[in-house]
Design brief:
heterodimer, A: 3 strands, 21% strand, B: Ferritin, 10 helices, 0% strand
Chain lengths: 96, 256
């Protein structure tokens, strides 16, 4: 008879440098927030990746429904004027 | 001409370095035995990280001991028999279950972390630098193992009794952490290493606090095991070294 219960899943966010935003890097299983931070440190910062770690219970994240993909994202596809690609950039400006 | 065995001239400084280096290597090797067997992926990486920290500390200490004794770090690790190893008996004890590994690590790091902190002001600049680097690592070791101890002890009935068994089983090995001898006394007097007996009260407090949070009881201090610092080891070290050293002793000087 299985006696194990599922361990809480946590999403891990790491800030690599001052001034950057925390970025989602993956997830870990851990029983509580202290062990989750410890696991995130051990799994995701082994090569000097971070200065700061956030862990968030995966269950706290509200995700968009993949079935709503067309309604949410399709309308943006036909509005190319929202991209800043219609400006003439003078040669003197160089690479932007 | 490659050799399969070395004899080290142990000045008091070399001996003091080997005692610390052998602790770190033996415990690091023990933790590395968890690779592929740990309870979760997260803890697998955590234990491997701890192992690599310890093996890194051992390397730094062996390099320094090697400069003083005319050997290189690999010779010191691979070409000495169990009788020449100077680690304490606690760190060579088999991993057992996860709780025993955690208890062993708490008992050891509650000692070695303050030891390195005190060694940061050593009169020996090389050792002080090694201590400064090692202390950052062992501080995390103590926190990580300590948090697990609390959760295992204050967890389920099963984890509680397994962890209490581990504490009871390993307790006779803690006395050796605080032993000194004439050679060590000379190094203490010279300000090279701290006096371990001065670290005993702090260790008692750290361990008592963690055991209390873990709802575990502290065993009575009874008869204590001893001998590791002079090369008298439990049978477990010989088997461990046989596996660790077989390649260098079968193919002397092999490189890859």
């Amino acid at each position: 008879m299985p006696t194990e219960t599922a361990t809480t899943l946590w999403e891990v966010f790491i800030r690599a440098r001052n001034g950057l935003a925390h970025r989602h890097v993956g997830s870990v299983h851990a029983a509580d927030v202290t062990l989750a931070l410890s696991a995130a440190r051990d799994v995701y910062t082994r090569r000097g990746e971070g200065l700061s770690i956030w862990v968030v219970p995966s269950a706290a994240i509200t995700a968009s429904d993949p079935a709503d993909k067309d309604m949410l994202f399709e309308p943006a596809a036909s509005k190319i004027y929202r991209h800043p690609t219609f400006y003439e950039v003078p040669d003197e400006v160089g690479n932007m | 001409m490659p050799t399969t065995s070395i004899a080290v001239t142990e000045t008091p400084l070399v001996l003091a370095l080997l005692r610390r280096a052998d602790d770190a290597l033996v415990l690091g090797h023990r933790l590395s035995e968890w690779t592929g067997r740990a309870p979760t992926l997260e803890e697998e990486l955590a234990l491997a990280n701890l192992a690599l920290d310890l093996i890194g500390q051992a390397r730094a200490l062996y390099q320094y001991a090697g400069e003083l004794s005319g050997h290189d770090e690999d010779q010191l690790a691979y070409l000495r028999d169990a009788g020449a190893y100077r680690n304490c008996l606690l760190v060579e004890q088999p991993n057992g279950d996860f709780s025993r590994t955690i208890v062993r690590h708490v008992l050891y790091t509650a000692f070695i972390d303050p030891f390195w902190r005190a060694t940061m002001t050593s009169t020996d600049a090389t050792l002080a630098a090694i201590a400064a680097r090692s202390e950052k690592e062992t501080a995390y070791h103590l926190r990580h193992a300590g948090e697990w101890l609390v959760r295992l002890g204050d967890g389920t009935d099963e984890s509680h009794h397994r962890t209490q068994d581990a504490v009871d089983w390993l307790w006779p090995y803690v006395g050796e952490l605080f032993e000194t001898d004439a050679a060590e006394q000379a190094m203490i007097a010279a300000g090279v290493v701290p006096d371990p007996t001065a670290l005993r009260d702090g260790w008692d407090r750290t361990v008592a606090t963690l055991l209390d949070r873990a709802t575990l009881h502290r065993p009575k201090d009874g008869w204590m095991q001893t001998g590791g610092r002079h090369g008298v080891h439990s049978e477990h070290l010989g088997t461990m070294l046989a596996e660790m050293q077989v390649l260098q002793r079968t193919y002397p000087g092999a490189r890859w």
